[in-house]
Write a structure and sequence with these properties.
Blueprint (H helix, E strand, L loop, with lengths): L8 H6 L7 H19 L24 H8 L1 H5 L6
Length: 84
């Protein structure tokens, strides 16, 4: 849901701040990600872009999300003042 529309997107598109073409943004992002993964020798499997996909920004997540979020925020919960 990285490219999911968000509240106020129309205004920043009109102001020229946000490109708005999510299909192009996804293509460019995925090309860069594939290049970095290939250089690192990391296998990468990306799904196709779906402009209709909605969820994360609206609080709808997969069943696996809570477990992943717990892992991603573990250090912060243990040491909120940590800095890197």
């Amino acid at each position: 849901m990285l490219f999911e529309p968000f509240e106020g997107v129309e205004e920043i598109e009109a102001a020229g701040i946000y490109p708005g073409d999510t299909a192009t943004m996804f293509r460019e992002w995925s090309e860069q990600l594939r290049r970095v993964a290939a250089e690192a020798g990391v296998p990468l499997k990306l799904g196709a872009f779906d402009a209709r996909a909605m969820g994360g920004r609206r609080g709808r997540h997969s069943e696996a999300f809570p477990t992943l979020l717990d892992e991603l925020t573990e250090v912060y919960r243990i040491e909120p003042e940590a800095a890197w």
